[in-house]
Known about the structure:
The complex is a heterodimer of chains A (172) and B (161). Chain A has 172 residues and is mostly helical. Chain A is 80% helix and 0% strand. The longest helix of chain A is centred in the middle third of the chain and has 29 residues, at 64-92. By secondary structure, chain B is mainly α. Chain B has one domain (2-157). Chain B is built from 7 helices and no strands. The longest helix of chain B has 27 residues, at 23-49. Classes of the chains: A mainly alpha (172), B mainly alpha (161).
Amino acid sequence: MMSELADWLSNTPVRDFSASLLSSIPGLPPVLQTIHLLCIVAIMASIVMIDLRVLGLAVPSQDIGEMIARLSPWTLWGIVGAGSSGIWFILARPNRYFSNPVFQIKFALLALAIILTFAFYRWGRIQTGIWDGAGSRFSLARAYAFVSLSLWLGVAMAGRWIAYSEYLFWSE
Amino acid sequence: MLNEFFLSLEYLPLAQNIGATWWFPLIESLHVVSITLMLGAILMVDLRVLGLAATRYSVSTLSRELVPWSAVALGVASVTGIAMFITRASAHAVNPAFQIKMLLIILAGINVAVFHLIIFRRNEDWDALINTPVAARLVAASSIALWIGVMLAGRWVGHIV
């Protein structure tokens, strides 16, 4: 299914447009990649800091409910920005990406991470008085924070490994 | 002579091992993750100094709680950065993007020293204010611009081979 999708994309004008965009404007690839990284910064500073706060590891003076309200727009715009800066690379070389197992892992983790994160934000906003560090709902929040932290670090690291998947999947 | 030194780094067994195995992508991905975490923590303090975010917290509270994270992340980024540098030291040393990146890191270091050693020393009158002094704002804005420049130059290193 992935390779059919990639083949179909390869035959659309979108592929030609993206490929010529990336190759004709000098310096555009590193600029787009830097924007992509800056959006990951926004994601790290919002999601990871909330996770670390819930786990009791960082920013003890900040209130978790207040953090979710203040930082969730940064998460949303970070994801939107990372998507819109990264998509050109996929559209320009669909076959290279869709057939890459690390790319598939990255997007599976990403889908799970996005769903979990926004579900937690929604849940966290309607919960009051659970953030004092006791009770089963707070334990659930801690379990979420650990999973979320692992997922998002996994997504960020997998992104960099796409270019090196041969070490993992086609060695020897 | 300097070039010979860089070449001798490349011939270290450690450098050869990193460059030829999955160690390299592992180190590179840790470099990226630590940089994003570092800049995230720095940005939170800078945007507060600029009065643009988290204004309910004082500058000293945010700084006290976030600077250690950015320092640890900078440490990881430095170790992983050096580990990657030694695999191709002589080529990186003459790479203009790499040279600009190092220059910008030095400037960012001076900038943060100016903030913590001079400007932030006299913070009692404005610690909790949204309207922070112009000097503090200038340093915060420079910090954001310099670190974005470091990131752009760093990403550019890989495009000049």
